[in-house]
Amino acid sequence: MALLIKTDIDRGTAWAEALATAYPELDVHTWPYKGDPADIEYALVWQPPEGELKRYPKLKAIFSIGAGIDHLASDPDLPEGVPVVRMVEPGLTAGMSEYVTYAVLGHHRFMLDYARQRAGKLWQEIPQIAAGARQVGMLGLGVLGRDALEKLMPFGFRLAGWSRTPKSITGISCYHGEEGLREFLAETDILVCLLPLTPETEGILCRETFDQLPEGAAVISVGRGGHLVEDDLLAALDSGRLSGATLDVFRKEPLPKKHPFWTHPKIFITPHIASMTIPESACQAVVANIHRLEAGEPLRHVVDMERGY
Ligand code: NAP
Ligand code: GLV
Fold it and tell me: How far is the CA of 125 from the centre of ligand 2 (A)?
């Protein structure tokens, strides 16, 4: 049984080693594969070239190395009828919760303001606000959004989340649908986006959304760059409608050198590293799913390609 790995950063070797330990009988190849395409039954991929996956006629499943599968959904030649599995693994979840916690606390404790003050050698205290006086609102209550909110619980923030379908989670005020979004935004001081990128969520971080947040709210964008309407963010920051933004994902990556986000004093930027799949823990999820499929059992975390996540 053969599996082909295509990664973007050089983690092919780490994956191959982790899979060899977890499933020694699996014949693991790193992309590009020079043998007969009909050998390949499983693909484990991040951003494969368009049409690439159609070359393998015996493919049984496509595993996304990321939680997001927009890099696959955008391929017009994605092979039909082959299940696409999104990445759900403890390393990726833990990393995202670390990043979101850091970013939420950074906005809560005015760290962007202090960075500006430091640049001007200005010693000036900003009055502290109690965590309980702020609401952290999460767009997306999936694997990542929910874990991040649960990790924030001990700090005492009011926590809220918004999803497509109704939810009930202890300690989190849950909203759903268009009507729920208005109510959710009206109370949210620190807005985090952990939605998948779909036609419904594209551009959700826009002026209309920002205008519904309390004056001076902050935005943390960690889902996908396509969620953010960039000019609307700049306008909202420049007018003072928003106090700051932490951005990890962008419409164009790498972010072009001349992009105004780089130098904006109210924006903190990271290069799409909020979280990364860790081969050593993720290979367990992939291997367990291969065993399931080979045993005739249903795969876990299969994407509904119609829905887009
Ligand atoms: P997930 O488990 O599939 O959860 C998605 C959540 O979004 C669900 O709660 C879903 O609602 C909600 N949702 C989807 N469409 C919606 C809509 N139209 N309206 C309202 N809610 C909607 O996904 P995940 O594993 O948490 O990952 C989320 C995203 O994070 C990924 O797709 C990826 O883009 C991003 N990500 C980024 C990084 C990074 O390093 N920056 C790393 C990993 C992942 P229901 O619960 O009702 O279905
Ligand atoms: C990273 O962006 C992912 O989707 O896991």
Answer: 37
